[in-house]
Amino acid sequence: MNMKPFDIKTIPVNYFFSEPLYIDDEFVLASQEMPFTEEFRNALTEWQFDTVQSNGEPQASYQEDSQQAKKKDKQFFLNDSTKLAEAKVYYTNFQHFANDIFTRAANKNRISYETVAEKIREVCEEIKNNRRFLLQIQKDVSSDDDFLAAHAVKSTIISIIIGNYLKLPAHRLIELGVAALMHEIGMVKLPSNIIQTKTELSQKDRATLMLHPMIGFEMLKSFGFPMSINAATLEHHERENASGYPHKLTGDKIGLYGKIIAVACSYEAITSKRPHKDARDGYEGITDLLRNDGKQYDEAIVRALVFSLSIYPIGQFVMLSNGSKGHVVDINPSDPRFPVVQLLDEKTPDGQNKIIETSPTGIYIRAPLANEDIET
Q1: What pLDDT, on a 0 to 100 scale, did the predictor assign at position 145?
Q2: pTM over 0.85
Q3: Which of 48, 112, 135, 374 is a plausible cystine mate for 314, CB 3.0–4.6 Å?
Q4: 173 strand-pairing partners
């Protein structure tokens, strides 16, 4: 993009940029409607970003009334806007960490379990504090250029959220997160054309691809990772009905971490773009897993996913029973059918987008909507 870099220390607090502000060439930190706050600066400093970039310039206020109106129309609790931007920064940092781990493994450098576990401990705390913001920005994170890192990060966050629902103790939650981050590590040893192919794999290439759980198991074992984590890496493609690989285990022989990662990994794969397919939305991902064709997945884990994300996951656009359009901004922990929705066409008296709790006796979700169904 050839954008101009800006030292974060020199940007005046609460100034707006005339064009979107980027962390790098891909990730937007703030739109024209959002001020550069002290919270932004602190978060960027904490996550070791020294500069941001933009095609615009910082300014004290908008110059055009139309821009002022646009700012007011799009306001969705300033704190939430700030938190979403901070979540994107955090997500970027986490993905860079994952990419570095995979690069080290590909270059035969040793990976420290303690380093990864410490990162996951931090991620668990971030999820505890900012779960809904991390989930909301997940659908906008591209995996085109960094498939393994993007898949690992998304699967890890979903796995930890499931683990939280299952009330795993802290040390087991960290083990689960490490296993989820590392579950595809064996892929780094496979030919890149197999991983990035846009066509159906040949029988020979498919057989090669199916070796990655065993390769990953041996790699982590050689690095001195705990056996519970190594086993999860080996088992994440096993299925309850023995239809999985590499050993066609039945459900009673698959460990809990492997069962959780199987569900998280599958949900992520359904809802993310791949070289050979387009992404499907969160609602389709949830309903696919709920159908559980052939009883591939542990039903308790699928239930945990549904109650953790809701049937209409955070970020999903929806049509409501009163004809309004909205998007899901939080779950209803007691009933996944009726999440919290931000309306796109109704304001509160102070000009903020109205947020409602859907319910069986009031306004409810009539149907999911695709992004292109929403007028921008």
Answers
A1: 60
A2: no
A3: 135
A4: none
Token representation of residue 334? 């007691």
pLDDT in tens, 297-333: 999 999 999 999 999 999 899 999 999 999 999 999 8
User: Could you give the domains of the chain?
Assistant: 4-63 (no CATH), 81-309 (1.10.3210.10), 317-373 (no CATH)
CB 357 within 8 A of CB 332: yes
Contact (Cβ atoms closer than 8 angstroms) between residue 20 and residue 54: yes
Which residues have a Cβ under 8 Å from the Cβ of 209 and sit 6 or more positions away? 190, 194, 195, 201
Q: Hunting for tokens 């709790």 — which residue is that?
A: 357
In the chain, which stretches have pLDDT less than 50?
61-78, 376
Amino acid at 72: K
Burial of 291 (0-12, 13-18, 19+ CB in 10 A): exposed
CA distance readout (Å), 207 to 197, 201, 314: 15, 9, 36
User: In this structure, are residues 160 and 127 in contact, taking their beta carbons and an 8 Å threshold?
Assistant: yes
338: nearest Cα among 325, 326, 328, 348: 328
Helices 78-106 and 170-182, axial angle in degrees (round to 10): 60
Q: What are phi and psi of 207, to 5 degrees?
A: -65, -40
For the segment 179-191, what is each residue's pLDDT rounded down to a tens digit? 999 999 999 999 8
Q: What is the pLDDT, as a whole number, of residue 67?
A: 42
Residue (of 352, 333, 334) closest to 344 by Cα position: 352
